[in-house]
Amino acid sequence: MESNPVLLESKSSPINLLNEMQQLRLLGHLCDVTVSVEYQGVRAEFPAHKAVLAATSKFFKEVFLNEKPVDGPHSNVFLNEVQVADFASFLEFVYTARVEVEEDRVQRMLEIAEKLKCLDLSETCFQLKKQMLESVLLELQNFSESQNSEEESAACPSTVPTAKA
Is the pTM of this model over 0.85? Predict the structure, then answer.
């Protein structure tokens, strides 16, 4: 008797994997790279995992695949002209697939995504910018329509019957 193959697929495994990698990073466990960022004299260091960075960023993938193991398994990468808050948000995104930033930072996040060649973050920022633009356009359209209605009302005063006592 032949058995048909069945698919065993976990819906929670990808998110569980990301959550566990994030916890390992936050605790500094198994981190094999330190990314130093500096912008206008403000500098910070971020421990991370090469595999996560390489899987989410073509920039890091190229760096790690082309590096020569001189100092052992731990690497150091230096990024200048990257704001500390932006790189922290980038790391949170690649480790959790989500990050909360102020609206005025979305453009900077898009720029860091493009600099680090992170397609998922680029697409996410682009989609959010598109939604924000559509929202502004809708507000403008509603405002314009309400202005037109007010102008039409002013041009054609309505006749209201008056009651006589």
Answer: no
